[in-house]
Amino acid sequence: MKSTRDRILDTAERLFAEKGYDGVSIREITSEAKSNVASINYYFGNKKGLYLAVFKERMIERARKVQASFWKEIELYENPSAETIIRSLARAFLKSPFSERERILHHKLMAREVNRPGEAFKLFHSEVLKPFYDSLISLLEPHMKRGLTKQQKMLFVLSIMAQIINFHLARNMIISLTGKSYNGQFVDVLIENIVQFSLYGIKGRS
Which of 29, 81, 126, 137 falls between 20 and 30 A from 12, CA-CA? Predict the structure, then answer.
């Protein structure tokens, strides 16, 4: 049985994802979580504290688990090739262990925060995005053309991640356009497509 605190976090994440921060009241959250306003104040301080807790304990933790999966695979190689890095990266995201519900909630809430960046986005950026993307640049840098600027390197990594995020997020669109079921076998096809397309980009810059 989940604790009161976890019930509040689960309910808040769902409602914030569906309606946005301004569209949800504390009373709505407590009503659906079968809790009370005093519990919000006790565990999180206020509505803003609850929203930030959702990012810290749900959004950031999920992202870190995906990143940990990537690093676990990469650490098997002393000098991983660009192909290995990109394949491991795509596999970590497209074969993440999260449920469909978690995936949808995560992307809905992140989309809202990206469109209207606030303190939660700054937190996600400093704790997850910037360190991870910088580390990807360091990993892929030996495979890039010499003399590229920092911005060019970041844009290259962003291009790889854009493919991965799109294939992870736009599942229904991919199904409708390809006529394929989004199953393990087709995910393997998507991963190889990301790898080969990205390698062409690296070769074009080398």
Answer: 126
Tokens found for residue 152: 């060019």
Count Cα atoms within 13 angstroms, Cβ side, for 87: 10
**Token pair belonging to 118:** 């606030």
- Among residues 83, 87, 82, the alpha carbon closest in space to that of 69 is found at 87
C-alpha count within 13 angstroms, C-beta hemisphere, residue 59: 30
CB-based contacts of 97-103 (< 8 A; 24+ apart in sequence): 97/65, 97/69, 98/62, 102/62, 103/168
Q: pLDDT tens digit string along 115-172?
A: 999 999 999 999 999 999 999 999 999 999 888 999 999 999 999 999 999 999 889 9
Whole-structure pTM value: 0.89
CATH T-level assignment (fold) for domain 54-204:
Tetracycline Repressor; domain 2 (1.10.357)
Q: So what's the pLDDT on residue 206?
A: 47
Q: Among 102, 18, 99, which Cα is nearest to 57's?
A: 102
| 205, pLDDT greater than 60 | no
